[in-house]
Amino acid sequence: MEQAVSTQKRKIRWFEMVFFLFFVLGIILANLFKESQMNQYGVINSYFIQQLKYIEIRGGDFLVYIISKRIPLLVFLCVLGMTALCRTVHGCFLAWAGFSLGFLCVAAIRNMGAGAVGLIMLSLFPHYLFYGAGYGILLHMQRQYQEDLCKRPRLEWCAVWGVVAMLFLLGMLSEAYINPPLCQFFLKKFQ
Fold it and tell me: Residue 119 pLDDT > 90, yes or no?
């Protein structure tokens, strides 16, 4: 039993190491870009910030856009995570997420200065609380399925899938309806 717990902890650390390694690589790569390139190609540039301050974001239209981006990724993770590729799929996803976050942080700080830290934190709130919890449950469930450590009854698997779906739905709703006004408020107050 103790050996199984130790193995679980090592696998969790492997995923953490992948995320943070690629986070650092994203930071390094972003720092290799010239400032003019970051302004031109970066998501967080002065033009984008000015547009975001005053644009009217219609939650329903934004929700459709978010669903079109999040659902295919979620289905991809759900389907391939139940195969023998589970570790590879989640490793690649965490590498991409870490790299993107590292690159975005540097781009934002270079273009906005210290105020970017607050904007980045706010831009992930509250929807990434739901996405993170849902992803954590999904990853844990798929790893248990792969390792056959826990043979759950079918009803229990359905309940867990339902919780994951509900968390991602709450994440998408909060990303569409709660996050944009928060970011606009922050930008109007502090930019």
Answer: no
